[in-house]
């Protein structure tokens, strides 16, 4: 299993785990989704890279395929970032944006 570890504050890690649980996921599954989303959308350059606070707790994404880890490493490098700080940036952004929650809340089938 291949990993990408993003270090966040304890408070961010708790919030991330709680958010994931509210979505019916564990933190690792949410981390995987966010990294895969980033590989599709390429938003790292638009996110604020200033890391707030001390990073002491890890949130880990696990991938079966080594190529996904390599893709994310190369993708992060295009923005001058290493994979860990890039992942942490995505995790913090999701805590503020709540993209997945809002995506799941939209009823795409309601025609009224």
Description:
This protein has helices spanning 10-22, 27-41, 66-78, 83-97, 99-105; strands at residues 2-8, 57-63. The mean pLDDT is 88. The radius of gyration is 14 Å and the shape is globular. Strands 1-2 form a two-stranded antiparallel sheet. By secondary structure, it is an alpha+beta fold. 56% of the residues lie in helices and 12% in strands. α2 crosses α3 and α2 packs across α4.
What is the CATH topology classification name? Arc Repressor Mutant
Distinct helical segment count? 5
SSE-based structural type? alpha+beta
What's the CATH architecture? Orthogonal Bundle
Rg from Cα:
14 Å
Shape: globular
Order of helices and strands: EHHEHHH
Task: Report low-confidence residues grouped into runs of 5 or more.
Answer: none
Q: What is the residue-averaged pLDDT?
A: 88
The overall number of domains is 1
Total beta strands: 2
Distance between the termini: 45 Å
Q: Report the major sheet.
A: 2 strands, antiparallel
Instruction: Provide the β-strand percentage band.
Output: 5-15%
CATH class: Mainly Alpha
Offer a few descriptive terms.
112 residues, 2 strands, 5 helices, Arc Repressor Mutant, alpha+beta, globular, two-stranded antiparallel sheet
